[in-house]
Amino acid sequence: IEHVVMEMSQRQRLQPDLLREVIRKESGFRPCAVSPAGAQGLMQLMPDTQRTFAVSDPFDPRQNIEAGARFLRQLLD
Is residue 2 annotated as a catalytic residue, yes or no? Predict the structure, then answer.
């Protein structure tokens, strides 16, 4: 997933280390992670967030990281 982290961090103006640490904390780098609250994938996206960012497969690393990075950018802004 490193190449996706690098691409999305550049695209969303985020530090790659920040994106990696969010993934590490949220899912332990497990693309199939599911929380008791229903968050899914590497960045633990909730269903409403998945819909907002048009994620069709929350367990697809590229889709999950792209949506998670976009959402993180919005939160930081």
Answer: no
**Per the residue annotation, which of 2, 7, 26, 66 is the catalytic one?**
26
Q: Which helix (H) or strand (E) holds 63?
A: helix 61-76
The angle, 0 to 180 degrees and rounded to 10, between the axes of the packed helices 16-27 and 61-76 is: 110
Element (H, E) at 23: helix 16-27
Tokens of 4: 């996706």
Cβ contact 8:66 at 8 Å: yes
Closest CA to 23 of 61, 50, 56, 74: 61
List per-residue pLDDT tens for the chain, 77 residues long.
Answer: 999 999 999 999 999 999 999 999 999 999 999 999 999 999 999 999 999 999 999 999 999 999 999 999 999 99
User: Dihedrals φ, ψ of 34, to 5°?
Assistant: -135, 130
| Entry pTM | 0.95
